[in-house]
Amino acid sequence: MIEFLAATIRIATPILLAGLGGILSERAGVFAVGLEGMMLVGAFAATIGTWGTDNSLVGLLIALLGGGATGLVVALVAVRYRADNMVTGLAVNIVALGLTSYLMRILASSGKPLAIHNALLPVLPIPVLSDIPGIGPLLFAHPPLTYLTVLLCIGFTLLLNRTQIGLTLRATGENPEVVYASGLNPLRIRMLAVTACGAVAGLGGAVLSMQQVGTFTDGMTSGRGYLALAALIVGRWSPWGAAAACLVFGAAEAFELRLQGFGIPVSSYVMQMVPYLIGLAVLSSLGQNARMPAAIGQPLTRDR
Amino acid sequence: MAALLEMRGIVRLFGDVRANDGIDLFVHSGEILGLLGENGSGKSTLMKLLYGMLPPDAGDIRFDGAQLKGHTPFDAISAGIAMIHQHFMLIEAMTVTENILLGWPGAGQILRQKHMAAHIRDMSQRFGLDLDPDAKISSLSLGRRQRVEILKAILRDAKLLILDEPTSNLAPSEVRELLDIMRRLKSEGKGIVFISHKLPEVLDVCDRVVVLRAGKLAGAAAVADVSRNDLAEMMVGRTVPMPQVEAGDQARGPQQLSVRGLKAAGLEAITFDVRAGEILGLAGVDGNGQLELAESLAGLRSIADGSVLICGQDATTTSVAERVRLGLAYLPADRSHTALVKSMTVLDNLMLRDTMRPPYGSAALLTPAAGRAEAKVLMAEYDVRAPGPESVVGRLSGGNQQKVVIARELARKPQVVVAHQATWGLDPGATRFVLDQMIALRREGAAILYISSELEEILSISDRIAVMAGGSFAGIVPNRNVDLRQIGLWMSGRAA
């Protein structure tokens, strides 16, 4: 049971990080369709950065920058030049897939993907707490990015609800015209939010490549960015809501792994659909109540 | 005493148009200045220049002893100028407190919502605003939302409040309360600029008035020294008397619109007839079922019970297109969403309902060249002021947009017209144009249901007056020696 719950947390972490980034973007009024691409670039940048410098902290920093740069591209195209959010996000996802796979190959002169094996980020048990029997190892013995995810969850909740910056960000997603009339600049707010979304989602990618696998493989995010998008919608654009959704998705996948382990004949393809089926069911039952930020996807009309 | 605001020799050009042409304006603290003018007279431009949304081409603005030059809205707000826009700048999904905190540097980076809510409650009491800080904006009436805007200005220590057409969306009781709030603000030493078309309100609350016409100063006076007619004349440069229909001055034809026991969501059994050559004016406070009635007649809502006869034919369950074919024309209140596609051209909008009919089209294809010629004729006939049929409707002024709707609906020579708030947001000149069109139609023998919350217009053009309250007709009388007290009682009887 502990093992099952631990797997749930492990699977949920990268999705939640990306989802947290997506919340920044969507609350500011830009659909976060590009999460998949941002994650993938983050996973790639973390691997290459760590491999190149032999320093995982630098690797993480590069993942942050890589994801941020991807976010900035989305911000420029979709916010500054007012392109359609969906199309921009999908295009970025496809470009990121191609670009990262290509770069892995040209970095090795052989034409095959570069073979990298980085050490995984170490598990950092919290002293005393991790010694509690049962829940101690489950809750208080994780690699660093997992703790960071929890901290960001708390931090983003406070940011969105308790600060002027958060209020302005939410207002930009609801009605940018009001923000403008209040003497603030909605264009800048959206640009920053989408860039920050990229950086955080990049870290989500880094969780995969640095905490769980140790290398980069082509398209290794395999749909987790879309899962993150579903999680933030099901979680109604709130960090804790998204966390709950991610844990449910994580549990579904962990359950699938267990079933396979017991040799129960359930097609893995069926089980892979489960998170999305849950997402669809929740979405349809929320219906109109799942109130999106009112101005999401609407381009800014003022050039300022 | 030095004036709070001094604007001198303000000039602003848009291409060749002199939107503001050497305007002087000053406001003292503790004074309400009425700023009057027709649509397009330069009021909004002048206020945008003051608020820093546009730079002036010439002129000098001094506010509270300091010069304002090259400023942005942010600078104007910091200097103590608050603008209350006609369309409220509030976020519906957020609470009153959150809206007030938004973009307020004084609130600090870390928000203390509980503390602020208590403060809001205090101030709201002091100014008689009666606001709940935790209420979501979407749950508030338009009048309440406006008070949130006012409170926002007060809390930011605004010294000058600009109210842009603040009464156009309010019910009469809300208007009275707003005027009281304005007096209270004045007694606290705030300066107020009150932009309005509505002369009675201006005369009621203002100390002085400034009238603009075609970008120039047309007059300025203390309210005590002018009459309503003086102001109307200053605004349009000529007198605009309301037309007057004499009830029963012309023979009426057969019943063209008959409504029998009509029931729908928000409507209780309604029965009435309108005859050919007759205008039935429907008065009442907005939101008492007028929209539901108008849309039920137009075929946009399903009817639960009862029947609607258009030109003697049962149209209760027929489609919109079929009703149009029977001779119905509908002028909806919400012209920007229901009547027009704002991003399309004048020609496109004129063609909308008639794409299969000459001159706009044949059964299979559109005939744009013939349509364009027809559009030009209509634009001249209905005085639509736009560069041409290819102009985008969204760029036209409210009055011209309404003229496009009227041109489209009336060019078809309808037998039955349902007009809902047809003069909403229009200046006296454009209002007069709409009323004259209604009278002309009546002369040609159309049956007209004229729904308006402007009682003055109803009294001016109706043969009979009905009053709507709480989703049904409270009363119906011929327009002859009307007892206004009775009308008022009916309106307030079951008013929302």
Can you tag this structure with a few keywords?
heterodimer, A: 304 residues, mainly alpha, ABC transporter involved in vitamin B12 uptake, BtuC, two-stranded antiparallel sheet, 2 strands, B: 496 residues, alpha/beta, six-stranded mixed sheet, 25% strand, globular
What does this structure look like?
The complex is a heterodimer of chains A (304) and B (496). By secondary structure, chain A is an all-alpha fold. Chain A has one domain: ABC transporter involved in vitamin B12 uptake, BtuC (Orthogonal Bundle), CATH 1.10.3470. Chain A has helices spanning 2-27, 35-53, 56-80, 85-107, 135-140, 144-162, 164-174, 176-181, 186-213, 224-234, 239-261, 268-286, and strands at residues 124-125, 141-142. Chain A has a two-stranded antiparallel sheet. Chain A is globular, with a radius of gyration of 19 Å. By secondary structure, chain B is an alpha/beta fold. Helix content of chain B is 34%, strand content 25%. Chain B contains 17 helices and 20 strands. Chain B has a six-stranded mixed β-sheet, sandwiched between helices. A six-stranded mixed β-sheet of chain B has the order 16-17-18-13-19-20, sandwiched between helices. In chain B, helix 14 packs parallel to helix 15 (428-443). The mean pLDDT of chain B is 86. Classes of the chains: A mainly alpha (304), B alpha/beta (496). Chains A and B meet through helix 7 and helix 8 of A and helix 2 of B.
